[in-house]
Amino acid sequence: MTASLAWVDEQLTINPELADRVLTGFIREELGRHGFERAVVGLSGGIDSAVACVLSARALGPENVLAIRLPYRSSSPESLEHASLVIDQWGVEQLTIEITGMVEPLFEQLPDIDQVRRGNAMARARMIVLYDQSVAFKGLVMGTGNKTELLLGYTTLYGDSACAINPNGDLYKTQLRQLAGWLEVPAPIIEKPPSADLWQGQTDEGELGFTYEQVDRLLYLLVDQRYRPEDCLAYGFSETFVRQVLARVRATHFKRVLPPIAKLSNRTVGVDFLYPRDWGT
Amino acid sequence: MTQLKLALVQMDTVLGDVDANLAKHLAWVEAAGQQAADLIVFPELSLTGYRLMDLVPDVARRPRPDDPTFGPLLEASRQLDMVVSFVEEDERHRYYIAAAYLSAGQLVHLHRKVYLPTYGLFEEGRFLDWGDQVQAFDTRFGRVGLLICEDFWHVSPPYLLWLDGAEIMLFVSASPVRGLTEADQLGSAVWVERINQAYASLFTTFVAHTNRVGYEDSLNLGGRATIFDPDGVRLAAGPKEGEGLVVAEIDLGQVRRSRLRLPLLRDERADWVRRQLDRILGLPGSTAWQPPEETDS
């Protein structure tokens, strides 16, 4: 068979109705097993959190979902508007808490803080609010990170990656767009360039240096189909691109595992003290 | 004409809570009894839940009347025959994924899972021991073969049960579904249904399969119980999700009719297969094919 990108795109095409059914069941049952019926979602105005919010609303009922907008003073007004579109369309509970007052005092004490560190601090400030509201609302924090983002480590550890469960994490960005269409997420949210909105003009694809469409095809071959890196070249990927993506996956692997605990005893948490998370439920 | 009213249970479990799952079993037996079922089949690890890991020794049981879990189950088997699945601890403290066929208060047969998947998302071989027997057994409905999940992903256990006389194959699974594409079922679920149909057709036997439902951690267990007849025709199918009972009356006389039409079992050359296996395994006395000697002419 000739290596064809059309074949890869076909493989990346999902049945969104089936994904919807599995993921809403996952949300309902995994929360339910632990005695929860409610969810908290940080709504950025982007596609990932919109999908997590809509799935949660469909699984649990809109009255059981708290969508929280967490703008910083430089956040784009468009992000807030797009978040409102989701809140209004599904009628979920909502809250807006500006994080400027949480992070500015820190930035003032760190005159040399750069854009990336500021972005990380903002992502972690948002996590603090989400986990506080998790207790107040008696709901669990929903993860929003997709498979592309997780594999590339394009996430802030203990920031936007922090969550109780993640319904999005096994869908590549391009697959998530298909699901978003099925869930009737408003078109402007699906169509705009993805951005963490941590600074003005930031886009994921600008920062990463490639498009999601390109990298999803490559990651699908490498991760899902277990192609050898050199065999991906037949699909028209450059050697530099393949090497760059692989290096990124390797370098960010620490973000995808729990921190190792130094082994001393016969049974060590995380090493050979092994129980399912749903133990006893 | 021998009829069997077969009830397959698609059920969720409480992970690691045998007493809670026992109560669910007794309720399903009651429900199947009300529909006049003759035999009820529960999915893999129905008494414990699937993703047990270090819980294995805590949930292990022995299928004896004095066991607090099996006592009530054996008693319930006076009402109708049943297949239940659990973690079995043997006298030497080895742990197996097992399935027991109970009838009239007796343990008729115990199968220990032979193939423990230990790859990808599976870790069974890390926590459990491998069974080493595949054997058909007689029941009041005829000769039955019993396999657990990965056992029937390999062709050899169903093949051996066929040669051992099984006319009804009962497969029980806790199969996490995976492989999202454009299709309306996940890839692994399609594959399982396809091979069930293939075994029924190739071995001219009834093949009934039931599977767990629900979620455990990241895993979604895919339901979809099915019954195929000896012509490979699907007689019943359960939903792709959700708990439920799939009840179907099957006419066991179909085995005879299918085998008269298609005498695959009569013509199967088991001894020839054994000799070929001897050669493949390099056993003493076996001989490989040699090219004919060239002769001058």
Walkthrough of the structure:
The complex is a heterodimer of chains A (281) and B (297). Chain A is mainly alpha-helical. Chain A has a domain at 15-198: 3-Layer(aba) Sandwich (Rossmann fold). Chain A is 49% helix and 5% strand. Chain A has 12 helices and 4 strands; from the N terminus they run ααβαβαβααβαααααα. Chain A has helices spanning 5-11, 16-33, 47-60, 77-90, 100-109, 115-137, 147-152, 173-182, 187-191, 204-208, 212-224, 239-251, and strands at 39-42, 65-69, 93-96, 140-141. In chain A, strands 3-2-1-4 form a 4-stranded parallel β-sheet, with helices on both faces. The model of chain A has no long low-confidence stretch (mean pLDDT 96). With 297 residues, chain B is of the alpha/beta class. Chain B has one domain: 4-Layer Sandwich (Nitrilase/N-carbamoyl-D-aminoacid amidohydrolase), CATH 3.60.110.10. Chain B has helices at residues 18-34, 56-59, 70-76, 124-127, 150-153, 156-163, 187-203, 254-261, 264-267, 270-280, and strands spanning 3-10, 39-41, 81-89, 95-103, 106-112, 137-139, 142-148, 168-173, 206-211, 213-216, 219-222, 226-228, 234-237, 244-251. A 6-stranded mixed β-sheet of chain B has the order 5-4-3-2-1-14. The mean pLDDT of chain B is 96. Classes of the chains: A mainly alpha (281), B alpha/beta (297). Chains A and B meet through helix 2 of A and strand 10 of B.
Per-chain topology:
The complex is a heterodimer of chains A (281) and B (297).
Chain A: H1 5-11, H2 16-33, E1 39-42, H3 47-60, E2 65-69, H4 77-90, E3 93-96, H5 100-109, H6 115-137, E4 140-141, H7 147-152, H8 173-182, H9 187-191, H10 204-208, H11 212-224, H12 239-251
Parallel strand pairs in A: 1-2, 1-4, 2-3
Helix pairs in contact in A: 2-3, 3-8, 5-6
Chain B: E1 3-10, H1 18-34, E2 39-41, H2 56-59, H3 70-76, E3 81-89, E4 95-103, E5 106-112, H4 124-127, E6 137-139, E7 142-148, H5 150-153, H6 156-163, E8 168-173, H7 187-203, E9 206-211, E10 213-216, E11 219-222, E12 226-228, E13 234-237, E14 244-251, H8 254-261, H9 264-267, H10 270-280
Parallel strand pairs in B: 1-2, 2-3, 7-8, 8-9
Antiparallel strand pairs in B: 1-14, 3-4, 4-5, 6-7, 9-12, 10-11, 12-13
